[in-house]
Amino acid sequence: MTLAGLMLALFLLGLCIFVHELGHFLAAKWRKLHIVAFSIGFKKVWGFRHNDIDYRIGCIPCGGYVDLPQIDATGEPKDEHGNPLPAAKPVDRIVTAFAGPFFNILFGLALSLLVWWVGVPQDTPKMSEIKVRAVDDDSPEYRSGLRQGDVITSVNGQSFVYSWNEFVRAILFTEGDVTLGVRRDGRQFEVVYTPEPNEKKMPEEKIAYPFFLPLVPLECVVKPGSQADSAGLRTGDVILELNGREMTDSDDLLMALRMNEGHEIRFTVLRNSQRMEIGPIKPVGSHSLTYRAGIQLSDSFNAVVSAVGPAGAGVDYGGMDFKVCDNILRIDGRLVDSEEMLERVAGKKDGVPVSFLVKRGDEPLEFTKHITTGDEAKDKSWMEVTYSYSMPFWISYIPPGTPAEGQGFRRYDRLLKLDGRDITDFDYFIRTVSDSGGRDLPIVIERDGRRLEKTLTPKPFYPYRAEDIGLELVIKEYPTPIRQFEMVVSMTYKSLRGIMSRKSTLRPRHLSGPIGIVRGIGVAFSHGGIMPVVGLLVLITYSLAILNLMPLPVLDGGHIVLALYEMAVGKPMSAKIVKPLFVVFVVLLISMMLYVTFYDALRLKPRTLSSVTKRYRYAESPSENQSD
Q1: The domain 130-215 belongs to what CATH superfamily?
Q2: pTM score of the predicted model
């Protein structure tokens, strides 16, 4: 997130809060209630006094307030000097409490009109069917029968017209099993599976993000008079291939443009169900070329045996065994890339031998064990495994068509040396590659525990954008204000339902507080400009209104409920009941805010995992298990 994005995010979050408190403030003045202070944020750092009202700015941007003693139901109302004030009428309290959320709704309506008029970028086009581009073969979807090339036509018995993010939300909001309607080779059937946390896609969040990827239609918008227009591309064409290579998503297309080395481009497109060849197009841009290899790096995942020992004295299984400092690389041939790998293997293969590939010193070793996470077999040996993300870097992704792909590099290769020097930071790797001039660079990698010496030859990289040839890949949606409000209400309901359900992977830690909201606004601005921010702001301000209307003490909805009670009964609820309720809910609200803020702060950190240690019990083979 850039500094500009951060400043914009702080301003807009403050604006939402200001609009909310302005509603309370104006309603209180209209109903002639006594106003002590109007504050944005908590812990006053600056302010001024005007017409006997204290206007404040606080240093803690977690909300704001209008100090209205006559709204407080926990005791006799008093002004800032301790002088008694007359009790406010129930209708005045209702109007004043409701005005804050109402102003948020009005603000959201104004923003939603702008979104309806200008449009907001979408991650993908709307799709009534989703073709599976790839599916993880160690996933609940794969085990239940989903395969590459399958076409998903329904979710939980309902047809859909979704962008990919909307489809993902439909999965995340499902309680219990997910049912996918699937078409394969003209045959229709159902794939039913229980969602599991996707540790590979979202290791920190631990939510049930799908383990498969969609084949997204690259529907384009063509600028009149551009190279793309002159070559024959038309708005609505779906790009299938670039120079004979299949395009699977917008990132794939952009990488192909950049690694094209300035050559002519020919597109294969789908127009009105017909394949067509378009081109040639000669990219022209003022961008200076550099050199790239097409390698994306991240800290590598390590599963290191930190302790071993027998649970019973004198137990000797013989053969190869685990030792401290063994780095577990593969289990049954699958790369260990998450801390949940052993648990999944143990759960699926209880009673079945499991093969291990470990690195011990500089040598890879293979042996077989029977492993379990349970404690029922006290005579088994045990090991403790410490998981972490750390050096060396490994290849997290190689885009198709890049030099690294053609030169035999693989995902999860660990990079040790480049051009004779240890690879100790990202900058050294990027700088060496970009300044290479295309010369061969000697590189040392580690693959499955073995050191390999290879040659990396960067290729010219032209930082062309699709816009340089008059091609826009941004798909916009123009949802009506009513549709936007319905979407927020639906998402809020489904999120709260999922958080409270044991059959969902959603948890309270997935909520966002002020830090998470600021981060979301900043990221949206950095990636897509101002309109994605406006769309997100509609969600935030409507959510703020809905949250505050919940009938809980200390929230606006709670004040409205107490006023309605007084109107119905003829007298206010006893302060002996109200005050403890307010104290309890204030504590709960603050605790929840701290809890959410803690997880928001964790998301600001790079993807790290330090000293997470788990214990496993194992034996040489199932037969020895049974004889022990």
Answers
A1: PDZ domain (2.30.42.10)
A2: 0.73
